[in-house]
Amino acid sequence: MNNNVEEVKARLNIVDIVSEYVRLTKAGANWKGLCPFHHEKSPSFMVNEDKQIFHCFGCAKGGDVFTFVQEMESLEFREVLKMLADKAGVQLEQYKSEDTGNKKRILAALELATKFYETQLWKGMGKDKIMQYLHERGLTDKSIQKFRLGYAPNGWDNIIKFLTGRGFTIQEIAQTGLLVEKTADSNQNTANSNKNFYDRFRDRIMFPISDNMGNVIGYSARVAPGGDESQAKYVNTPETVVYHKSKVLYGLNHAKQDIKNKNYVLLVEGNMDVIASSQAGLGNVVAVSGTALTPDQILMLKRYTDNIAMLFDMDSAGQQAAEKSANLCFEKEMNVKVVALSDGKDAADVVQKDPSLLIKSVKESTSAMEYFFKNILGKYDSKSAEGKNNIAKDILEHVAHIENKIEKSSWIKKIAHELDVEENVINSVLKTVESSVVSSVKKQDQAEDQPAAFQKRADVIRDCLLGVIMSDGNIWKETFDKEKESEWVKNDSLISFVLESGPAANFSFDGLMLKIDDERAIEKLRKIYFDTKYRFTAEEITEQSQDDLRKMAGSYKAQYVKELQKERLHSIIREIEKAEQKGDKETLANLMSEFTKLSQETRD
Ligand SMILES: [Zn+2]
User: Fold this and answer.
1) How far is the centre of ligand 1, averaged over its atoms, from the C-alpha of 38 (Å)?
2) Cα separation, 586 vs 580, whole angstroms
3) What is the pTM of this model?
4) Dist. CA 23 → ligand 1 center (Å)
5) The domain over range 98-243 is classified in CATH as 3.10.450.350
């Protein structure tokens, strides 16, 4: 029995798909290229056509065509499945998960809404006033089309009427974020409209926000010229099931190829800046939409490049945002430059005056650290002790975020030299600064991923065992038949999940992927699977034989069970101490006998 994942894999060639992103050349049995997941000058990224997998010797990333596309496009597993199934001409079965069906409906509604707004702009209510404004801002028809700008006319129920007329329920439309629910005391006069909701976007210029695949997932909506200026200048779609503002960058769907080609991304503040820059020939441009740059967004960008140039407004808010964003980028080891505009307040402004000025400014961008240092030096008297102290503190606030050790130490040298003080003085100031600057990224990382060193030994062995089980359907099935009721299986949720999903997944790894909704679990199991199933050397990829796998399974299981017993022993010791303190003789006796029994078992 085949499943959709296997079917898609059978019809596609990983070499073709990877070639859409990476230039591959034939090298023996493999194809080689520069790894798209880390920066390198000589190729260590390898694709094996025979086994339909890829592996990078530089950063150890690897997997199948699904892993590759998911990493490249930062999509969820099911989105990749849909995209590749389309490519392969595979009809996907309807999944039981209602979620996917619902998401599809929401995306379909948003696509129709975008068309509606476009029509309103080109032929409807926005034809004169709004078009004129966009042209005055310097946008060409081509850009307006490319970025699918639109106009939401004034009125409480335009989009409600339009979408309900196309067969969407009010609940579905509400989930797109296009509507606002009336509060109980609201007395908006909309008796003739649909009960409890009204249009969120009224008399606004619509900038659709797309995911990496180009699906519209939300909007940033600007108040129309001459519109109600008492309202917020920009209103954005709230968080919905498809729109997560911290995980989206405006323009990335258009920019990703150009970012890869030019090997840097230009980060600007607003939608208008993106369109203007793109129109000026800088296609590798994105903007954060109504938030500060987030760690998730940086990771998305890092898929395409390690180099970022920031072009923020020259006012103090813009410069503060640039500093904050730069610090986050330092933590993720990105090379950051700052573009300073000598003329005009933002990119859109400059392009309107003269597109070549923008290109010139971007060319002249300076390293962010140099830029900050120069500004800070200008703020204080570098001859006085107090001035030196302030300069050191301010610049070290940035240095504290630099993750790259070489860069960090070279900055310490430079600051010491510039201020004419000993390096160890700078280092000790840095220590105090670092203890107060607790990086948000670091905090988040630590909460989410325990460093490998802290992973319990039992968990390490469990992962090895899981890898073996998933690598071979027969071993999977044997383990399931024999062990599904065993204590050690029930003890761990990941093991019991994989074993118990076996029959439904037809004991195939691809089948299992379809049973998981949690993206982190998919990522984890995938890594375990590919790390176990294949052995990589520079010249070849070998698979473990079934015999070897069976032996490994036996040995890992024994080690795992023993490890669990040892853990139990440690906790018995703690319980014994407690029982002794309390003088609970009965519990103590039971614990002692369990302890004796277990310690004998673990010895042999
Ligand atoms: Zn790599």
Assistant:
1) 5
2) 10
3) 0.65
4) 14
5) no
